[in-house]
């Protein structure tokens, strides 16, 4: 397969970001699946690369502390699976996840070069479901019944956003190309302004899909900013 060159849309993206206006009173930060199941290499069942874990946690701590200082609400959304009697992890109802679980070869794992499992990922009560401790403080909101890739699907995220009168959602977390991207699509479809913070996202699937996710957002769905770029937009 021939290598596909990424089209240069930097001028368009730069202009869009330059014209972006963020009202902190109608903005919320949504950390997605920033739990130990992805970001703690010692126990993660679907781990991001260690260097990505360190980067994402460090930048996210900086972003969230800044947001809280500006009274911007933080809404954590995490996936937790029930372990159903006679069936196993409820996520295995996804045919693709089940097919992956049935493949034993290491090269066919979701996480290239790192051990992972769909069957034991973030089971209810397991340590993997714990939000990374330094990213959670009293006063943050937590939605812990996410079951699929989209943070809106099957949760009360939109209800909470509407109650808080949120118009701009700032998405961070794991994975850039799945849960972050899926949530960006739904947020866009529901007329929220979408921002993804590039410092605070990563993909366990590989750097290529991380880049794909960011390109898709900034060219089709919303804005991609660094932490510093975001902070400069908040007055």
Question: Your description of this structure?
Answer:
The chain has 235 residues and is α/β, with parallel strands linked by helices. The protein has one domain (10-81, 131-233): Isochorismatase-like (Rossmann fold). The chain is built from eight helices and eight strands; from the N terminus they run H-E-H-H-E-E-E-H-E-H-E-H-E-H-E-H. The strands form three sheets. Strands 1-6-7-8 form a four-stranded parallel sheet. A two-stranded parallel sheet has the order 2-5. A two-stranded antiparallel sheet has the order 3-4. Strand 6 (168-174), helix 6 and strand 7 form a beta-alpha-beta unit. Helix 6 packs parallel to helix 7 (207-221). The mean pLDDT is 94.
Name the beta content range.
15-25%
Distance from N terminus to C terminus (CA atoms, Å) equals 48 Å
Shape: globular
Contiguous helical run count: 8
The fold-level CATH name is Rossmann fold
What's the number of extended β-strand segments? 8
Helix-strand category: alpha/beta
Under CATH at level 1, the class stands as Alpha Beta
Q: What is the topology, as strand order, of the major beta sheet?
A: 1-6-7-8
List keywords for this structure.
235 residues, alpha/beta, Rossmann fold, 4-stranded parallel β-sheet, 8 strands, 17% strand, globular
SSE order and pairing:
Layout: H1 10-19, E1 27-32, H2 36-39, H3 50-69, E2 75-79, E3 83-84, E4 88-89, H4 95-101, E5 141-146, H5 157-163, E6 168-174, H6 176-189, E7 193-202, H7 207-221, E8 223-225, H8 227-233
Parallel strand pairs: 1-6, 2-5, 6-7, 7-8
Antiparallel strand pairs: 3-4
Helix pairs in contact: 6-7
């Amino acid at each position: 397969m021939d290598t596909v060159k990424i089209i240069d849309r930097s001028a368009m993206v730069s202009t869009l970001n330059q014209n972006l206006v963020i009202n902190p009173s109608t903005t919320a930060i949504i950390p997605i699946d920033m739990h130990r199941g992805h970001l703690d290499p010692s126990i993660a069942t679907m781990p991001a690369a260690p260097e990505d874990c360190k980067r994402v946690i460090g930048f996210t701590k900086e972003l969230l502390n800044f947001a809280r200082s500006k009274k911007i609400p933080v809404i954590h959304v995490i996936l937790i699976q029930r372990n159903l009697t006679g069936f196993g992890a409820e996520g295995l109802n996804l045919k693709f996840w089940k097919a992956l679980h049935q493949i034993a070869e290491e090269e066919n794992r979701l996480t290239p070069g790192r051990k992972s499992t769909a069957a034991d990922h973030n089971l209810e009560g397991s340590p993997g479901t714990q939000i990374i401790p330094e990213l959670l403080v009293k006063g943050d909101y937590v939605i812990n019944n996410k079951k699929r890739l989209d943070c809106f699907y099957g949760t009360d995220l939109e209800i909470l956003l509407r109650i808080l009168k949120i118009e701009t959602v700032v998405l961070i977390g794991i994975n850039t190309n799945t849960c972050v991207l899926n949530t960006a699509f739904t947020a866009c479809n529901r007329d929220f302004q979408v921002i993804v913070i590039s410092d605070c996202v990563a993909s366990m699937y590989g750097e290529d899909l991380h880049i794909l996710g960011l390109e898709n957002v900034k060219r089709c769905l919303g804005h991609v900013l660094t932490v510093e770029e975001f902070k400069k937009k908040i007055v």
